[in-house]
Amino acid sequence: MELRHLRYFVAVAEERNFTRAAQRLHIAQPPLSRQIQQLEETLAVQLFERNSRPLKLTETGKFFYSHAVQLLAQTAELESMTRRVGNIERSLSVGFVGSTLYGLLPKIIRRFRDENPTVELSLHEMSTTDQIRALKDGRIDVGFGRIRLEDANIRRVVLREEKMIVAFPLGHPLSLSKPVLALRDLVNETLIIYPKTPRPSYADQVLAAFQDRGLKPRRIYEVRELQIALGLVAAGEGMSIVPSSVYGLKRDDVNYKELDDPTLVSPIIMSTRMLDESRDIREMLELIYRLYEEEKIPYTPRVDRGR
Ligand code: BEZ
C-alpha cells in the first residue's frame, strides 16, 4: 500500500462519488476506480458498500478513513517541518483570527519583518478551528486564536488574557448609568455575538459568560464577524461584548464600557505543531514577550499541553 492509495481513498470517501473524487485529484475516473479496487484487494477487505449511491463507507472503511486522514496529516507535517529544519527556505506562515488585528498583531508582524528580513512571512485570516487543521496540514506554522481547542499534536501558549468590554450605541441610557457595567445589566438588551460559524468560537465564550452566571440575554443576534457586530451596535440593534483591544478602533458612533468582573477575559493563544521547535517560532515568541514588556502589557506566560 502506498501513500497514493490513501490520498485516493480519502478523496473518494469525502466526495462519496468517483467522478467528483477524480476531478478533485485531477485524474481520470477509470484509473481511480482501479486503484481503489487494488487497495481493497491488498487489504482483503471491502471499504465501500457495493452499489450504494452516494457511496457509503463500510464499518471497516470508516476505521480505515479515520487513520488514513491522520497519516496524511502527519505526512504533510513531516514535509513542511523537514523543509524548515533543513533551512531550504526560511518562511513562516501565520494564521490569525480577525480580532487580533486590533491588538498587537500588526506591530508584531512589522517588528518580525524588520528583525528577520530574510524570512518570507505570510498572513492568513482564519478561525481558531481552521488554524488547528492548517497547522497539521502544514499550511501555516503558527496560529493566533482565542479558543482553547485540545489536540495532542498542537502546543498552545496562552499569551495573555484580554479583558472583555461592552460596545453599545452612542446615547444609549446605559451610557448615563454606572461607570462600569455588570453582565446582569445587559440581559434585557439584544446581544450581538460573532462569529456565527465555525463553532466553537469567541461567540461561545461570550454565551458561556452569561450561562456561568445563570443569566440569559433577552435576544441573541449571531453575525459573521466583529465589524458587522460593531456596525449593528452603531445602528442601535443591540450590544456586543468585545475584547478590550477593539476599543482602539475608536468609532465615534459606538461607546465602550468596562465590565465589573475581572474574570471576564478572552485569551490570546499562540498555537504551533507540538514538535516544531524551529528558530522562527522561538524568535516570534520572544519578540511577543519583548513587546509586552515594552508596552507594559500584563501577560501570563504558560504552556498548555495539547492534552
Ligand atoms: C496581542 O494583542 O497580545 C497579540 C495579538 C496577536 C498575536 C499575538 C499577540
From TrEMBL:
Residues 1-58 form the HTH lysR-type domain. Keywords: DNA-binding, Transcription, Transcription regulation. CDD domains: PBP2_BenM_CatM_CatR. GO terms for cellular component: protein-DNA complex. It comes from the Bacteria. InterPro entries: LysR_HTH_N, LysR_subst-bd, WH-like_DNA-bd_sf, WH_DNA-bd_sf. GO terms for molecular function: DNA binding; DNA-binding transcription factor activity. The keyword Membrane does not apply. Belongs to the LysR transcriptional regulatory family. This is Transcriptional regulator CatR. It comes from Caballeronia ptereochthonis.
